[in-house]
Amino acid sequence: MTSIDMPWYLELVIVAFLLFGALVALIGSWGLAKLPDFYTRLHGPTKASTLGVGCTLIGSLLYFSHQQDGVSVQEALVTIFLFATAPVSAHMMGKAALRRRLKGIQGTRNMPDR
Amino acid sequence: MNLAYRRWQYWLPRPLFSLFLALLWLLMVNEFSAAHALLGLALGVAIPFVTHGFWPEEAKIKRPLPLVRYLLVLLVDILRSNLVVALRILRPARYLKPGFFSYPLALDDDFAITILASTISLTPGTVSIHYDAEANTLLVHALHLENEAGMVADIRERYEKPLEEIFR
User: Can you tell me whether residue B144 is helix, strand or coil?
Assistant: First the structure.
C-alpha cells in the first residue's frame, strides 16, 4: 500500500498510542494468566482490554483519517460495540460461575453461598 | 387491538432507535449515498419491527445534558480503572483482597439498571455478577475490597444519582 507522507509528530503520536495500547493489552493478558481465581480473572477482559483496544483504535483512527479524506469513523463504532458488549459477557460468565459454585481463592470476602 | 396496524406506532415502534440504526448503517459502510441512506432506513424500520417483542419497555431519557456529563465521567473512569487494574495485576497476588458485596439499587427502570451494571463492570476493580430482581440488589465482585460501605457510597454518588436524574 502506498502511503501519503506524514508529518513526524503525527507519526509519533500514532506510535505512542499503538505502543501504549499494546502494553496495556499485554498486561491484561498477563493478568489473565496469573490472577488466582476465576472471579479475579473476570476483571481482565472488561478493563485492560477495553483500554488496550481503545488506544490501538485511536491510533488507527488517526492514521486512516490522515491517509484518506475525511474522518474514519468505523473505529469509533468498534469502540462503542466493545464498551457495550464487554460488561455483558463478563456479567454472564460471572453468573455462570456462581451457578456452578466455583470457589474463590482463600480470603475472598463475603463469598456468596448459592 | 383491531386496526392496530393502522397506527404508525405499529409499524414504527421505536422511531429514535430506527434513526439510530440508519445512522449506524451509514457509519458502518463509511460512505454517504442515497442508496445507502435508503437501505439504512429500511433496516432501521425492519429491525425494530421484527425484534420489538423482545424489548423491555422503552426507557425515557428525560435530560440529555446530564447524560453527556455522565459519559464524560465514565470515559475518565474507564481510563483510571484500566490503570488501577493494570497496577494490581503487576503486584504480587498476595496483596489482593478480592471480595463480593451486594449493592442495594435505588433505580427501578430495567434499562437504567443495565447501564449501571455495565458502568460498574467498566470502572475501577469491580464487575457486576448477578442481579437479584426480588431484593433489587446487584451482586458485585471487587478485585480489591477494603471498605464495603465506602464503595457502595461511591457508586451511589458517582453513577446512580446521575442516572436517576437522567431517567427520572
Answer: coil
Asked if residue B115 and residue B46 are part of one domain, the reply reads no
**Over the stretch B102-122, which tens digit does the pLDDT of each residue have?**
888 887 777 788 888 888 887
Whether residues B46 and B106 share a domain: the answer is no
pLDDT in tens, A38-85: 877 877 767 767 788 888 888 888 888 887 776 777 777 887 788 778
Q: Is A58 in contact with A17 (CB distance < 8 Å)?
A: yes
The minimum CA-CA distance between B97 and chain A, rounded to whole Å, is: 7
For A97, the enclosing helix (H) or strand (E) is helix A74-99
End-to-end CA distance of chain A: 57
Helices (runs of H) and strands (runs of E) counted in chain B = 7, 3
Contacts of B1 (CB under 8 A, 6+ apart): none
The Cα angle at residue A56 between residues A61 and A1, in degrees rounded to 5: 60
For residue B79, list chain A residues with Cβ-Cβ distance below 8 A.
Answer: 51
CA distance B7 to B12: 9
Among B34, B54, B74, the domain-final residue is: B54
Q: Report yes or no for ipTM above 0.85.
A: no
Domain boundaries, chain A: 8-99
- Of the candidates A90, A12, A106, A102, the residue with the CA atom closest to the CA atom of residue A48: A90
Q: What is the pLDDT of residues A98-108, one digit of tens each?
A: 888 777 766 66
Name the minimum distance, in Å, from the CA of A8 to any CA of chain B: 27
Residue position matching grid coordinates 439504512 = B40
Residues across chain A:
114
Sorted by sequence, the CB contacts under 8 Å of residue B21 that are 6+ apart come out as B40, B43, B44, B47, B48
Chain B's closest residue to A94, CA to CA, is B129
* Residue B107 sits in the same domain as residue B158: yes
